[in-house]
UniProtKB/TrEMBL annotation:
Pfam families: adh_short (PF00106)
Gene3D superfamilies: NAD(P)-binding Rossmann-like Domain
Organism: Aedes albopictus (Asian tiger mosquito)
Transmembrane region(s): 12-32
Key words of the record: Membrane, Oxidoreductase, Transmembrane, Transmembrane helix
Domain of life of the native organism: Eukaryota
Keyword Transmembrane attributed: yes
SUPFAM superfamilies for this protein: NAD(P)-binding Rossmann-fold domains
Name the UniProt record assigns to this protein: Dehydrogenase with different specificities related to short-chain alcohol dehydrogenase
Signal peptide: none
Length: 333
């Protein structure tokens, strides 16, 4: 019977490489079998979908899939150069000319308002609003010209305002859907009951991902409160975790962590795989009546109790209304 022989550095290196290769192969297989599947081949002709952050990563793949299904896709992006390139690529591949690029900087309340006004002037109805744009900053916290913490402004306050400004367009749809791309990293955050942490502009340095995790926590609270407020309308609101995906979201990982991280990224899912749950929530007929849920791998998934606290969700909503400077003439939800 043969046995391991640790007799030379070469054999040790060979064993280590084999062990890593076996581990990575098993991990890749696990990712494959847990990947969500979209069974619906629904044609989306006649439907108008807004995808924020559609110039790269998960958003671009979401736009690509919906374009192939015939939807009118509004790519809401801050970088018009990469957005135009992405649009041209999607049009060429899908043969769908009904793909439009519009400018929005989700971290700026004025830009969100300008974008919403443009939509109100050019569109008759919005069927699906996909809040996909997101940032994960490194250690430094920034403050926007609106006095909001930058990561929270982009990931949470911008979408909160945009949802209000477009809600009446969504209500015009036969079945409006609002989809929020959150993250399972919400688990490492909390919104304190006194809301002392919902606009942390004083702390200049933060632990990596602290603000990101908080923004994802707030997104889930927002989705659930929104779903409750939309009861009795034809509009639903759901959120999701897309998986761990190899995209630009990891670009701000600080040195030297980024050196270790690069090879690990090889194991992550592709942006197309990351778009599946978003596309599923956009097209699947079986989710038509589902609202206020968190999805992962195209399935409803349980979330922890802390994020589901109804009282804190209500308080967060009211405080957010003030922070995004909602006006009397703006739609109420
Ligand atoms: N990748 C993952 O493993 C993972 C896991 C969980 C959740 N998510 C979530 O998935 C969503 C998509 O991210 P991704 O992974 O596809 O990363 P990505 O490739 O970096 O895409 C993020 C998109 O958001 C856009 N964006 C960022 N700030 C913006 C702003 N102020 N205004 C307008 N657009 C802005 C980016 O535009 P620019 O090109 O101009 O930067 C980009 O198009 C994010 O909400 C992220 O939090 C990702």
């Amino acid at each position: 019977m043969s046995s391991f022989v640790w007799d030379s550095p070469i054999s040790i290196v060979a064993y280590v490489i084999t062990a890593i290769a076996v581990f990575l192969s098993i991990f890749k297989y696990y990712l494959y079998i847990t990947l969500g599947k979209i069974t619906s081949s629904r044609n989306m002709e006649g439907k108008t979908v807004i995808v924020t952050g559609a110039n790269s990563g998960i958003g671009k793949e979401t736009a690509r899939d919906l374009a192939k299904r015939g939807a009118r896709v509004i790519m809401a992006c801050r970088n018009m150069e990469t957005a135009a390139k992405a649009r041209d690529e999607i049009v060429a591949e899908s043969n769908n000319q009904n793909i439009i690029v519009r400018h929005v900087d989700m971290s700026s309340l004025a830009s969100v308002r300008a974008f919403a006004n443009e939509i109100l002037c050019t569109e008759a109805v919005i069927d699906v609003l996909i809040h996909n744009a997101g940032v994960a900053e490194g250690l430094i916290s920034k403050v926007t010209s609106d006095g909001l913490e930058f990561t929270l402004a982009t990931n949470y306050y911008g979408p909160f305002l945009l949802t209000h400004l477009l809600i009446n367009m969504l209500k015009k749809s036969d079945q409006g859907r609002i989809i929020v791309v959150s993250s399972k990293l919400y688990r490492y955050a909390n919104v304190k009951r006194d809301l002392s942490n919902i606009n942390p502009t004083n702390s200049q340095f933060n632990a990596p991902t602290k603000l990101y995790n908080l923004s994802k926590f707030m997104e889930i609270m927002f989705t659930q409160e929104l779903a409750r407020r939309l009861q009795g309308t034809r509009v639903t609101a759901n959120c999701l975790h897309p998986g761990v995906i190899d995209t630009g979201i990891w670009r701000n990982i600080p040195f030297p962590l980024n050196l270790v991280f690069k090879p690990i990224q090889w194991c992550f899912r592709t942006p197309e795989e990351g778009s599946r749950t978003t596309v599923y929530l956009t097209v699947a007929p079986e989710v038509q009546q589902i609202s206020g849920k968190y999805f992962r791998g195209c399935k409803v998934t349980e979330i922890n109790q802390r994020v589901q606290n109804i009282e804190t969700q209500g308080k967060l909503w009211e405080a957010s209304r003030t922070l995004v400077k909602l006006r009397e003439e703006d739609p109420m939800i």
